Protein 1
Amino acid sequence: MTTQQAADTRLDTLAPPRRALLLAVENRRGEATLALAELARLVAAAGMVPAATLTQVRERPHPATYVGKGKLREVKGFLVAEDLDVVVCNHELSPRQVVALSDQLERQVMDRSEVILEICARH
């Protein structure tokens, strides 16, 4: 480990953990509950705090923004009100969805796969 890597590691441990909003789309009420519980454990293992959860009931994720326009406004307001740092979506996101969500929400956006990769990188 180089001196710079050691310094970066120390800084990482001093920074407060990022607070995450878990976001899911479900086609029937209650279906996402188990998946979100697992996602919360993954987020915690990645060094973040799973601070809140929001879901939207719709047949399938919106192709451009994952959630609909109204839910997107709600999520943005919630992020600001609760001072959350990152949005973690329960489904795999397309690059288009990541860019659209990041631009609209002005926060880092991750999907389940990216959280798992972050866990692996930490170990």
Note: The CA atoms of residues 30 and 57 lie 10 Å apart.
Protein 2
Amino acid sequence: SSERALRPSQRAALKKGEVAVKGDGHAEVTALNAARQMGLKPRRVAASRPICPQCAEAIQEAGAEAVSKLK
């Protein structure tokens, strides 16, 4: 989400194994930071909106691949 946290309806839509995280800034970087804190290494990152150049760079630096449309 582009908001600090998911809305209740968004949290209710999470599938088994999906984790809601909170953070300021773009969702892609929030997800990367949360994964790192959990000891995970993301391989692919997707978003419902085009990924901005700064997020695309952060994804690449994390060793992952942006798999949705880029701005």
Note: The first strand starts at residue 44 and ends at 45.
Protein 3
Amino acid sequence: MIRFLKDRGRHRVALLFVVAILSIGGCGVYSFTGASIPSHLQSVAIPLVEDNSVNTLTALDEQFTEMLLQRFVRQTRLRLETTEESADALLRARIDRYANLPASVGGNEQATLNRVTLAVTVTYIDQKENATLLDRSFTAFEEYDPADPEQGLTGEVEAARAALEKIADDIFTAATSNW
């Protein structure tokens, strides 16, 4: 009797696994990163991100472009196309706002924490079907201690990078989970 119950439990688990896999298949092509890409899209172009923000940091546009490439090309089956015209999909991003402001002030009226906030606008277009898949803004922030002598300017740089990582994750999730 005990063996029958154990076998029955295994069959339920196997059946649930098969049902889960089959239900995923109806929404497009699924990868185990959680990304779902329509089957007719084979390539993507990701031009250098525009940086329209006013900030003192350099290369935010290049760093953010690399973050998007990591997600859309290396975590999906999409291949990178170097020309926008020949790509099946086009992902454009623009850094619109950068702020580095005190988030917490101590007793001596000096900032004990600064908050770096970034806002990015993204457009993701299915060029084969001439459809906009995503067109919206994303915002994220990260805090750092400006008084920490070990951090110095690197605290701001690391906070900006962490905020961009969050935004890149949010863009990837929004662009690949609507199927």
Note: Confidence is low (pLDDT under 50) at residues 1-6, 8-33.
Protein 4
Amino acid sequence: MERQFDPILRDELYTERLENGLTVAVLVKPGYRQMTGRVAVHYGSIDSRFVNPQTGKAVHVPDGIAHFLEHKLFESPEGNVADRFSELGAEANAYTTYTHTVYYFTTTDQFNECLDLLLGFVQEPYFTAETVAKEQGIIDQEIRMYLDDPGWRSSANLLEALYVRHPVRIDIAGTVDSIRKIDKDLLYVCHRIFYHPSNMVVFVAGDLDPEQVVERVRAAFAGREYPAQQEIERILPEEPPVINERRKMQELVVSQPILRLGFKEKEVGLTGRALLERDLLTSLLLDVVIGKGSALYTRLYECGLIDQRFGFEHVPEVSFGHTYLTGPTHDPSELEARLLAGLHEAQQQGLAEADFERARRKLMGRVINLMNDLEGAAFLYIDGFFKQIGLFDLLPTLQSLTLEAANERLRSHFDPALAAASIIYPRR
């Protein structure tokens, strides 16, 4: 078992890779009453085309099937698994992203029983034609509900504007038409391929004995017949280095317009330290240039173009990436022009060293706070695992960043030629 120790956080992380390829990670948190367990599967909404490692043949499944499978795994012949977690006094849930699916529980008691339940139900799919049809109706309503959600549509429209072919432009839940093509046989195929131990990681955190946890996980997978499996080859279309359209507009029931301005990543395919550095650099410079303490934010706020709901985020994935700035505004065109002008001004002037260091200290504080929260630590570990980023890589990488690298990132990333705007206007 590998042990890692972070001298700043004073945390220990134990990791072991089992014979079947499953990675088990235990973050030891002495004195914590709360405990959490998670199973993450390297299977997200963009994985609709892949090579079946058991047959060598290319497969194309309907959009939204990863999310559909997440919903269906909670069903068993004995009822809904979430109810059994509740009986144990635990909170349980799951979520699907563009790149992975996560099942988790949080508890203060009966950890072993909760862990056994978690590890069991993700390995034991139960699908019937009747339950699949019922779920299609439920997800159909979910999709239609989000069609009228301003925040959701603002985000979805921006992705459609930024990306030409990449499947990130398709909703995680799929479409009303695509989910109708899902059947129990397809669900079993996807579960058999993607829910293989070599494509999963188990993460637990709390005041726990790592050796006992690893042995319990090993026992939960023992006796199950998992054939040897090569790494899954995912088939993604070649994404051109341009945006799909400059502006995408829609009318919905909102009190004032919403602007979401995005910048597409020029280079993709990065993993590990290179991807982490780029993400941290982007977070730092965004805080300096348009954070709440910046001159640009103050100007936009004082003239009424933004309010406290204005925000931004960098989305760093291996096969795609972008940054967006968003908020409600009475004049989206003016706000867009001011943001572009402000970013251009920052590129010309460069970041000041004092501002850069202040942003670095602020981000270090945020990382430390997340690491002291079990939910935050679990998110950081899982989000980094499939990108080959270690949990204890964040702080040393953040400390190693330079002002010169931040200014170079500022100049290269915020290219108006790769900018697209999504605008939601009030319905007339």
Note: The first strand starts at residue 2 and ends at 6.
